[in-house]
Write a structure and sequence with these properties.
- It comes from Chitinophaga flava.
- InterPro entries: AAA+_ATPase (IPR003593), ABC_transporter-like_ATP-bd (IPR003439), ABC_transporter-like_CS (IPR017871), ABC_Transporter_VariousFunc (IPR051782), P-loop_NTPase (IPR027417).
- GO terms for molecular function: ATP binding; ATP hydrolysis activity.
- This is ABC transporter ATP-binding protein.
- There is one protein chain.
- The radius of gyration is 17 Å and the shape is globular.
- The longest helix is centred in the last third of the chain and has 14 residues, at 163-176.
- The chain has five helices and nine strands.
- Helix content is 25%, strand content 26%.
- It has a single domain, classed as Rossmann fold (3-Layer(aba) Sandwich), CATH 3.40.50.
- The chain has helices at 41-49, 92-100, 111-117, 133-145, 163-176; strands at 2-12, 15-25, 30-34, 56-62, 67-68, 77-80, 151-155, 181-185, 197-200.
- The chain is α/β, with parallel strands linked by helices.
- A five-stranded parallel sheet has the order 6-7-8-3-9, with helices on both faces.
- The protein binds adenosine-5'-triphosphate.
- Adenosine-5'-triphosphate (ATP) binds next to helix 1.
- Adenosine-5'-triphosphate binds at residues 12, 17, 35, 37-43, 185, 187.
Length: 206
């Protein structure tokens, strides 16, 4: 999967958050979107995901075989982000079952394994409303990283994680990141440790 932005810009009301973004995200590569609080990292990631509409320029998604329509891209990507809420009424087992109605796990990964990989197997029957914020973040990461999709979009992936949680995140990426396109929005090196390409959002302020 390749994602190409050409002179892409996003504004809220009269404020341009970024303009003139011309970038190509290549299959198998790992990118970090960097910048201070409020600079627009998360907005750029959401524009890339198609969750919010850009105001100028273009975004194109393609595989080596064919272009991917904007309204089909969601099938090819998994997202973990602070603003994406889990359904609090579900138990951990139920949220995994629900997730698997839309996305498959990587080959060989079972729901029980997914829980074990993030240290939550004992909480299988517990309602998510009773999980701590760090436990919820572990679930979001497992659901995203273990999904069998070619693109991972991670917004501040270590939000609410303690040191053990950060280590788990890094282990999940190392073990299951594979040859996928990964884009991380972050200002914490522990979150983008695996990235070789850096995008500084402040380069796109006009
Ligand atoms: N829906 C919206 N309406 C108006 N302004 C918005 C909206 N969403 C974001 N913004 C503004 O866009 C700017 C960029 O926000 P964004 O969340 O992308 O920053 P960020 O770099 O991810 O910040 P942080 O590091 O704090 O997460 C901020 O000034 C924010 O207030």
């Amino acid at each position: 999967m390749m994602i190409s932005l050409e002179q892409t810009g996003k504004r809220f009301n009269y404020d341009w958050i970024f303009r003139g973004v011309t970038l190509s995200f290549q299959a198998g590569e790992r990118y970090a979107i960097l910048g201070p609080n409020g600079s627009g990292k998360s907005t750029l990631l959401q524009v890339i995901s198609g969750a919010i509409q850009h105001n100028e320029g273009t975004i194109q998604y393609s595989t080596p075989e064919k272009p991917i329509a904007h309204d089909a891209f969601f099938r090819y990507c998994a997202i973990a982000a602070p603003y994406l809420e889990l359904i609090e009424e579900f138990t951990l087992t139920e949220i995994i079952e629900f997730h698997l109605q839309f996305k498959q796990f990587l080959p060989g990964i079972t729901p029980v394994m997914a829980m074990q990989l993030v240290g939550l197997e004992k909480a299988a029957g517990k309602q998510l409303r009773n999980f701590s914020s760090g436990m919820k973040q572990r679930i979001k990461l497992a659901l995203a990283i273990l999904s069998d999709v070619p693109v991972l979009l991670l917004d501040e992936p270590c939000t609410n994680l303690d040191a053990a949680g950060v280590a788990l995140y890094q282990q999940l990426i190392n073990q299951y990141g594979g040859n996928r396109l990964i884009i991380v929005s972050s200002n914490d090196e522990q979150e983008y440790f695996m990235c070789r390409h850096y995008i500084h959002i402040t380069d796109y302020k006009q």
